[in-house]
Write a structure and sequence with these properties.
Blueprint lengths: L1 H11 L2 H13 L4 H21 L5 H29 L7 E6 L7 H12 L3 E4 L6 H11 L3 E5 L7 H12 L7 E5 L5 H7 L3 E2 L3 H11 L2
Parallel strand pairs: 1-2, 1-3, 3-4, 4-5
Length: about 210
């Protein structure tokens, strides 16, 4: 029931209700991974469908994204704890994720980061509007295996290529697996710029990371 309530609260863009329900998830010791995957993310996926079909407008999408972020802020730390409790050994790997320079869209990136965390990865989210150096410096700092770069605009896709080129220039390309995603991106684009993989959805991104680090 609470999962359906979470989904609807995100669709309605009701930030306060989302926060209240997420607190209830913690208080009643409901699985936070379930709450994120089958509550919050189901809500934002429905918003995406309504937006695509022309049944929802930008202000509503932004309110839904804000509600989602509020929920992830509360449940995010619990995902890491749930992961640790379910897996006493070291995490599956370290991933640096962010949205590229010139792009301030982070709904999809936030969802992917949450799903990766729930799947057992140590995720370092550097936010949006980040240049190639920021991705690289964070990866070097934390000892990441994967760098995930999101671009939601055709005008910022080139920054994903810039990241791959930047790593090559510094002799670090073979040290990291670079994966890309975002609305206008494709497998063809990933191949063209020399990335190690492309994912269309958050679940695809997790499967891709599993495959790359297998």
């Amino acid at each position: 029931m609470i999962l359906e309530e979470l989904k609807e609260a995100v669709i309605e863009g009701d930030r306060e209700l989302v926060e209240e329900l997420c607190q209830k998830v913690l208080d009643e010791k409901i699985n936070p991974v379930e709450a994120v995957e089958n509550g919050l993310i189901k809500g934002i996926e429905e918003i995406g469908r309504l937006w695509t079909d022309g049944e929802m407008f930008l202000p509503d999408v932004m309110m839904g994204a804000d509600a989602l972020k509020a929920g992830l802020d509360i449940l995010g730390p619990e995902l890491s704890k749930a992961k640790a409790a379910g897996d006493a050994k070291e995490g599956k790997g370290k991933i640096v994720i962010g949205t590229v320079k010139g792009d301030i869209h982070d709904i999809g990136k936030n969802i992917v980061a949450a799903m990766m965390t729930a799947a057992g990865y140590d995720v370092y989210d550097i936010g949006f509007d980040q240049d190639a150096a920021a991705f690289t410096n964070k990866a070097e700092e934390v000892g990441a295996q994967i760098i995930a770069a999101s671009a939601l605009l055709t005008t910022t896709m080139g920054e994903q290529k810039e990241l791959v080129d930047y790593l090559k220039e510094r002799g670090l390309r073979d040290k990291y697996k670079v994966i890309i995603g975002g609305g206008p991106t494709t497998q063809g684009w990933a191949d063209e710029i020399g990335a190690d993989g492309w994912a269309e959805t958050a679940n695809d991104a997790v499967s891709l990371c599993n495959k790359l680090l297998a």
